């Protein structure tokens, strides 16, 4: 990095110099000490809640790991990614905020940037796979019933390989990881896009393959699911109450499933917008005090899913009524909060079969 700095300093005055080259100490906090303390407490609370919530999901699933269905396996993987962000990444930023500077040097900066991007990309690609699984299960029943446990494990291998590839690409000299403008956190070097055409190609590739394309797949899948469920709801209006209730539950679970993806995207899109503006907008035009807010919001994404699982459990239990079978299903729901996600698929498959009959 010192070599990069010397090369930049020897270039012409018109060439763009990233903030970490312009500043004598790029790891010194540019925020007030009070703001750093508030951010440190905020991340501490987020980290504790995320660790406990996702750890609970993983613990409960481990008690019946041999009985996990493909959808449940993907949900566990999402919890693993969220837990990884909390355990591996957050302690670095929490300590740095309380210390009023990044204290782990360039090596720690690169590790922190890699870990955050690796687990964040893994979470988004996992949700992309889940959305595709639900799309096939509801809109193309023949393909949905074909998916088995070993397909889920193959999918997991592809997800981790995908995240590893894109997180490691910067170490091959194509891109880099660098400190944020406010100094106490690190991320992808979005500012390379201001310096060269190669940097622009790197940033655009990251944006397309690790944000835009997965988001487009998620939106497409859930739009098709909503249309299918609405159509099926009209068709089952003439059927008995049991089938109608099944479709009502499907609609509720589909909306909550969308909430999981929406929570992640809402947390990360403001950060993505600021990053894109830093890469392609007017150089250094994003105020430092403004840039820290999307960063803190993005770091909270790992906390949402366990809370949403709890909401799913409560709503799903409240919607069920009557009969020993209902009580049995309700008891199984209490065993693990995340399994209701996959029951949505099973009920969709059952309803689809009944409609065809």
From TrEMBL:
Assigned protein family: Belongs to the G-protein coupled receptor 1 family.
Transmembrane segments: 37-59, 80-99, 111-132, 153-178, 198-223, 256-280
Locations listed in the record: Cell membrane
Record's protein name: Opsin-5
Gene Ontology process terms (BP): absorption of UV light; absorption of visible light; phototransduction, UV; visual perception
InterPro entries, per the entry: GPCR_opsins (IPR050125), GPCR_Rhodpsn (IPR000276), GPCR_Rhodpsn_7TM (IPR017452), Peropsin (IPR002962), Retinal_BS (IPR027430)
The keyword Oxidoreductase is assigned to this record: no
Species this chain originates from: Gallus gallus
GO molecular function, one term: 11-cis retinal binding
Phylogenetic classification of the source organism: Eukaryota, Metazoa, Chordata, Craniata, Vertebrata
Listed PROSITE patterns: G_PROTEIN_RECEP_F1_1, G_PROTEIN_RECEP_F1_2, OPSIN
């Amino acid at each position: 990095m010192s070599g990069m700095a010397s090369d930049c300093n020897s270039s012409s005055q018109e060439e763009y110099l990233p903030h970490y080259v312009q500043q004598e100490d790029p790891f010194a906090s540019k925020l007030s000490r009070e703001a750093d303390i508030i951010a440190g407490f905020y991340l501490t609370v987020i980290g504790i809640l995320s660790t406990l919530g996702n750890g609970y999901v993983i613990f409960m699933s481990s008690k019946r790991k041999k009985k996990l269905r493909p959808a449940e396996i993907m949900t566990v993987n999402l919890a693993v990614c969220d837990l990884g962000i909390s355990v591996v990444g957050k302690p670095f930023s929490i300590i740095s905020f309380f210390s009023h500077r990044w204290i782990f040097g360039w090596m720690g900066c690169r590790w922190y940037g890699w870990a955050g991007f690796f687990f964040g990309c893994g979470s988004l690609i996992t949700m992309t796979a889940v959305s595709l699984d639900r799309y096939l299960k509801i809109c193309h029943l023949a393909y949905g019933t074909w998916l088995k446990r070993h397909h889920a494990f193959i999918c997991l291998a592809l997800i981790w390989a995908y995240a590893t590839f894109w997180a490691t690409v910067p170490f091959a000299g194509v891109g880099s990881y660098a400190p944020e403008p406010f100094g106490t956190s690190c991320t992808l070097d979005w500012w390379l896009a201001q310096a060269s055409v190669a940097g622009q190609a790197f940033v655009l590739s990251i944006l397309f393959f690790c944000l835009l394309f997965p988001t487009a797949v998620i939106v497409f899948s859930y739009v098709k699911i909503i249309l299918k469920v609405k159509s099926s709801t009209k068709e089952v209006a003439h059927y008995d109450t049991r089938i109608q209730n099944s479709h009502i539950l499907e609609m509720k679970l589909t909306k909550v499933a969308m909430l999981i993806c929406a929570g992640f995207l809402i947390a990360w899109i403001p950060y993505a917008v600021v990053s894109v503006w830093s890469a392609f907008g007017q150089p250094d035009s994003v105020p430092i005090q403004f840039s820290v807010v999307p960063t803190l919001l993005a770091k909270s994404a790992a906390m949402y899913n366990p809370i949403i699982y709890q909401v799913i459990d409560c709503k799903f239990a409240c919607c069920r009524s009557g009969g020993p079978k209902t009580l049995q299903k309700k008891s199984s729901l209490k065993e693990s909060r995340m399994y209701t996600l996959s029951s949505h698929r099973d009920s969709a498959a059952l309803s689809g079969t009944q409609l065809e009959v």
